[in-house]
Amino acid sequence: MPSSHRTIATLPGPRGLPLLGSALQLHPRTIHRTMEAWSHRYGPMFRVRLGSREAVVLADAEAIGAVLRDRPDGFSRPVVTADVTRELGGLPGLTLAEGDDWRRQRRMAMQAFAPGFVKAYLPRLAQVGVRLAARWQGAAAAGQPVALSADLKRYAVDVVAGLAFGADIDTVNAGTHDLQDHIDTVLAGVARRSLAPLPYWRWLPLPAERRLVASVAALQAAIDGFVASGRAAMAADPALRSHPANLLQALIAAADEPGSGLGDAEVAGNVATMLMAGEDTTASALSWLAWLLAHHPDALRRARDEVRATVPDLALITPAQADALDYVEACALEAMRLKPPAPFIPLQALRPTVVRGVALPAGTLLWCVLRHASVDEALLANAAQFRPERWLPGGDATTPAARQAVLPFGAGARTCPGRYLALLEMKVALVALLGQFELDSVTAAGGADPAEVLGFVMAPTPLRMTLRPRAAGPGAGRLNAA
Ligand code: HEM
């Protein structure tokens, strides 16, 4: 490595304790906020000790873009998360795969989540939205609050299961809430263990750790059920081998090819991956969006008017109508700018490299802080405020510099393959909400503002929503049954 480069030791950073480093200052539930605060204090690149590991924290948009694009060869996801997952029973999937395994799985996921494929799924996605609205109607008529966060998670699980596995599981209504609870427990457990300074669970089988192990087993059983259904559908219609109808069938067909490099574990692992990657992320983005709209009456009115003028009947929504929801999309992007489900992306250097003039040896943990440049006053006027208009043509969020800084779905080869589905899913949920109801309030328990809680994603503390049936007028009450 040329001597002109600085070493990590020259970087500023918080002074930690011997052995523990800064571990005591970093709580897993709020670590994102601490890293963001430290980015202001120590600048766009600093170092921090996480127990025995040293991490380099990066908050500079240009440098973050470069490292995210230097994948899969230059940077991987941190091996700790894959290790934690393996220790829990090993469910390899696209999110944690690396190298050639990742390339093979990624190709299939990109086909299954391609815009054309997702558009073709719109009528079924709309039915899941219709079911969500139907669930809310009783509460709205009775003036009862709805458990918004939990309902949105079920909605997200149903949407992913329908698209990726061809399964109509209806967790929104059927009372089969277990699946979503187990997903939540596993996501929180993997995040907790990945950030722990020591593998305490090996010595201390705390109740939360025992629940985690039980949820992994239950999730595995549910996944086996999806895979068995996928195989049964393919046995009944062998043409699906050459023309799979969804990601699960594509994975099964590939796994059954001799020498494919994919096996049953990868099939099951990707079923788990899609459930986990698609549930909390979208549900969290939607929860924050509903909360922000409830607190910004002008934006709420404009979004509601657009929904009602553009989509007269959710059950019959067309791709053209969904595309025309420009203001709703702007609201979604603005909510994810201020409240990103993924406020940071941790990476690990696969080879010696240089970032902002600092030499990073292979293996360096690089923590990319995404919510820093995206809320910078130098880039966006009133950057802390919710202003969806900034995403409309000519707005300050549409400049190249802003686009580089606001990365809710990551960037580069590993950018989120579910992003198109996620945006469409958010639009359908908002049509379900604003098309049929008047939104009165969205709050955390006791009427408080929600806190940011980091688990697998950054979510609000559970939200409750109060609604009223839509005031009479053209289109009111039109909600075709699923
Ligand atoms: C609002 C919703 C969502 C947000 C904010 C989000 C965000 C992200 C982010 C930040 C990444 C990491 C990207 C990177 O490393 O550059 C990611 C990866 C991923 N997302 Fe999403 N996501 C969302 C919805 C979904 C959905 C609906 C699915 C699929 C069902 C999905 C599947 C995945 C997968 C499989 C990866 C790993 C890709 C890889 O490593 O190659 N996501 N997502």
Automatic annotation (TrEMBL):
Required cofactors, per record? Answer: heme
Cell membrane: is it a keyword of this entry?
Answer: no
InterPro entries attached to this UniProt entry: Cyt_P450, Cyt_P450_CS, Cyt_P450_E_grp-I, Cyt_P450_sf, Cytochrome_P450_monoxygenase
Q: Which PROSITE patterns match?
A: CYTOCHROME_P450 (PS00086)
Q: Which domain of life is it from?
A: Bacteria
Record Pfam families = p450
Similarity annotation? Belongs to the cytochrome P450 family.
Name the UniProt record assigns to this protein: Cytochrome P450
Q: Which organism is it from?
A: Pseudoduganella chitinolytica
